[in-house]
Amino acid sequence: MPKGPAVFGAPVKGTETPDSTPAYRHPDFVGGLKNELDHAPEIKTVWDMIIKSVKTWPNAKCHGVREVRNGKAAGFKWISYKEVFDRVTAFAAGIKEYVKPDVTGELKLVGLMGLNASEWTCAEWAALGLGATTVPLYTTTPRETLEYILNQNGCAVIVADIPCAGSLLKAKPGIPSFTTLVVYGKGDTSELRKTAEGLGMTFFTFDEVVDAGKGKPEPFEPPKPSSIFSFIFTSGSTGMPKGALLTHEAQISVLSGAFYNTERSGIHLLPGEVHLSYLPSAHVMERAFQVNTIFIGGSVGFYQGKREELLDDLKTLRPTVFPSVPRLLNLIYDKIMNKVRATGGTTAKVFNMALNAKIANLKNGKLKHLLWDTLVFNKIKKGLGLDRCKVIVTGSAPIAGSVLDFYRAAFGTCVVEGYGATETCASATLTHPLHFASEHVGGPSPNVELKLVSLPQMNYLVTDTEHVNKMKVKGRGEICVRGKCVMREYYRNPEATSKAIDKDGWYHTGDVGAFLPNGTLKIFDRVGNVFKLSIGEYVAPEKVENICTRSSFITSIFVHGDAFHPKLVSIVVPDPEFAATWAKENGINTTDIKALVKNDVFKKAVLADIDKVGKKNGLQSYEIPKEIFLEPEPFSIETVLTPTLKMQRKRALEYYKNQLDEMLGAPA
Q1: Residue 133 maps to which CATH number?
Q2: If you average pLDDT over residues 73-96, what whole number do you get?
Q3: Is the pLDDT confidence value at 267 over 70?
Q4: Of 228, 447, 616, 651, whose CB is crowded by the most CB atoms within 10 A?
């Protein structure tokens, strides 16, 4: 068996009720949660952390961006902690007079909207030093959402890249409080300046603000632990986004829990670690990893901002820590496996032999294999830029156990899966790096406690002892989280806040899970998205979707049903590379995905595999889609996804109304 503890979460005696399990905590912190940093208890805010790191590692590499030589991206060019902080100080001094209070008068606000960049992070640090709160906005935020958010909080100054500046100026007539625009990035800004000034706004480039601030007195007004570090906006999958207010002490709480977990598991993160910043800066997960990296004196390299060039950025930077999401990890996995499958012959046989041997070795707690790593996997790791990676972290959505095992085996590195939410600073659970089971998301982080609350309407009770396929559990129900990492509130939304956080401080996530006998948490359902079929059975579409995407044919899927019909139907986006390989193997005269989606043989194969995967993973017959529409184009923000790439079910129903109606047929 793998090394590591036998128990990952422990119940706190006497905390159970008829409707809830006991509170579960990290086994080392049953007596009280961990909220301070072991080696730096004096750090109480993110600003404290920044100051300490700048003083400790002034000459270390801090921010890196790709150089461009002869029109092509070259290596990363680095600036030191001191150089970054000098820019932060000057920017803060230059922008201070333009930072205004929010509509409540409690917070000073600085908006941020743009692709990941040193300027984005410098502006955030400057805001924190001024005791202000950042308002990060996704680059894909629609105009009506921009107007809603900025009118709700009254943000006056926004720092944006050139494309986002254009979007903001288009929305400006509907946002009276928005008066100052600061633009960063390479390119001509003269038209943006002309438009902004024509709208009566104050316009600067980032460098102009820095130049204006040089020589001015130090402007800083450090925040308190209880100060609001940032707004983080929910995905907006069920309506307009809600602004979760996260405090500085919440961020430090998450940092303390994360580093306790890594150090106790034998992963020693040291000065000089390298992080690739490519997840959206407005997302809570990216913010957490940048904080973690700066705390240890690490280096943050920013990607070029183009998805199609991300793998080149990865190969060039060679990060030592790699946070990712299932969407990208699945893409890399599929590319490797499809290439092996297409190559065939001896190469494929050797690869599969090596992979199977290393996966078998995981049961003995072994990540390395001298022969197979030398012959096969070291080349793949180096080719991707993961040859010096110590740990891969995945979160934000479920990921198949087979994919986790692949990365552990092929890359010989620890792969951990985390669970959290915007409202908990991305913190709740984390799998142990040396425990290679994949049916759960780990035990409670040292800084939180968890409990389950019965959901009788969904037949999930805290007294349940079995889950699907006779899996032993210690209760099932809605997952609740409590700790300093939980948001203070949803901004100016007391009704939503009271629904989310109960009188005892528990945040109700809306996710459904079970505690396993070893104290880990398994997630398998959602509270909100449930509908009833005409046959009287209830279906949780996200549960079905998560299982169906384990099919090699499928990249994405949207599942639908209603009370007037007896069956489920779905919109399926096939994996084009797998589809092309399958077509060659099955004598289909085309490998073009737009042609394959119209091919009845291919469609039947996809539907058959959905049925096979569904039954294998415990879905009931009524939970398996009976008809599918094959969509050749990936789901996108322009069609059915939120800015955080989550399915917006209402939009999907409208966008695919004709296809869904045709598959469902007449009411039963």
Answers
A1: 3.40.50.12780
A2: 98
A3: yes
A4: 447
CATH classification at residue 324: 2.30.38.10
CA-based torsion, 369, 371, 376, 381: positive or negative: positive
**For residues 277 and 324, is the Cβ–Cβ distance under 8 A?**
no
For residues 94-123, give the mean pLDDT. Answer: 98
Query: Which range (447-456, 462-471, 537-546) has the least confidence?
Result: 537-546
Q: With the CA atoms of 73, 79, 84 and 86 taken in that order, what torsion angle do they form, in degrees rounded to the nearest 10? A: -130
Which residue, 202, 223, 244, sits at the end of a domain? Answer: 223
Query: Is the CB of residue 222 less than 8 Å from the CB of residue 129?
Result: yes
Instruction: Report the CATH number that the domain containing residue 551 is assigned in CATH.
Output: 3.30.300.30
Which of 504, 526, 548 is the C-terminal boundary of a domain?
526
User: Angle 474-478-482 (CA atoms, 0-180°, nearest 5)?
Assistant: 95
In a domain, 232, yes or no: no
pTM: 0.89
**Which phi and psi angles does 247 have, rounded to 5°?**
-90, 165
- CA–CA gap between residue 597 and residue 572 (Å, rounded): 10
How far is it, in rounded angstroms, from Cα 351 to Cα 338?
Answer: 12
CA distance 140 to 416: 29
210/127 same-domain check = yes
**Integer CA distances (angstroms), 588 to 343, 591, 613, in order:** 18, 7, 23
- Is residue 197 domain-shared with residue 81, that is, in the same domain? yes
Query: Which DSSP string corresponds to 524-576?
Result: EEESS--EE-TTS-EE-HHHHHHHHTTSTTEEEEEEE--TT-SS-EEEEEE-H
What domain range is 536 assigned to? Answer: 531-664
Number of domains present in the structure of the chain: 3
CA dist 17 to 9, 13, 221, 463, Å?
18, 11, 45, 11
